[in-house]
Specification:
With 214 residues, the chain is an all-alpha fold. It has helices spanning 15-24, 31-36, 43-50, 55-62, 69-75, 81-88, 95-101, 107-114, 121-127, 133-146, 149-152, and strands at 165-167, 176-178.
């Protein structure tokens, strides 16, 4: 008998075994996920979970109000869209983080950012002129929602942007009025031209000549 011959050979993999192993590695079944949701984590623990290989753990950390700035900045560059979206929706995110995410390519990230009540009004206004119509539509929806009485109390900085957004350009005397949904310039009716001032006649009337004709 050869050495090790008493070790049984592995049998064929059964479907139930595969499902069990899959469940063991599922994000929701990870003990790390439950730990990441713990409200009593220390800063060092949060940083460690923010570097987890489990994307769901990183997403949870990105959404925490006590997420340190350093790890939040790192997560803005995460390869997973859901993780970046969690950062974008975090009301504790700094202005620098939010400003960086305005250039994200994924709509879910931009949508989370637009709907973040902590987004500064000037960044929201800038996104109203985004090149993608979906993003402009999301801004319009946010501003329409802010015009409701219940929303005005929570977000009083944005109603003035609802109807008009002024595009201030260097060298222009007046601000151009733009349509917030399309970003196109509106052309208001031109102001009436002033009436011409009648000129004083210099012709001779009888024997009298005006002083200008002398």
């Amino acid at each position: 008998m050869q050495r090790g011959s008493d070790v049984p050979e592995p049998g064929p993999v059964r479907e139930g075994d595969t499902m069990a192993r899959g469940f063991m590695y599922a994000d929701g079944a990870s003990a790390e996920v439950a730990q990441a949701r713990n409200s009593d984590l220390s800063k060092d623990q949060i940083v460690a979970f923010g570097q987890s290989k489990n994307s769901l753990v990183r997403e949870i950390i990105a959404s925490r109000s006590d997420c340190p700035l350093g790890i939040m900045v790192t997560l803005t560059h995460d390869r997973e869209t859901d993780v970046r979206a969690a950062v974008a929706g975090n009301t504790s995110a700094s202005r620098t983080v939010m400003e960086h995410l305005t250039d994200d390519k994924q709509i879910p990230v931009l949508e989370a950012l637009i709907n973040n009540p902590a987004l500064p009004p000037d960044l929201l206004e800038a996104m109203a002129f985004h090149r993608r119509s979906e993003v402009r539509g999301l801004v319009t929806a946010r501003l329409d929602g802010a015009s409701a009485p219940s929303a005005q109390q929570q977000d009083g900085a944005t109603p003035e942007l609802r109807d008009r957004v002024f595009d201030q350009r260097a060298g222009e005397r007046d601000a151009a009025v733009l349509d917030i949904a399309t970003g196109r310039q509106l052309h208001p009716d031109p102001a009436p031209e002033p009436e011409a001032t009648p000129q004083t006649s210099t012709e001779t009337v009888g024997d009298y000549r005006s002083p200008e004709a002398l």
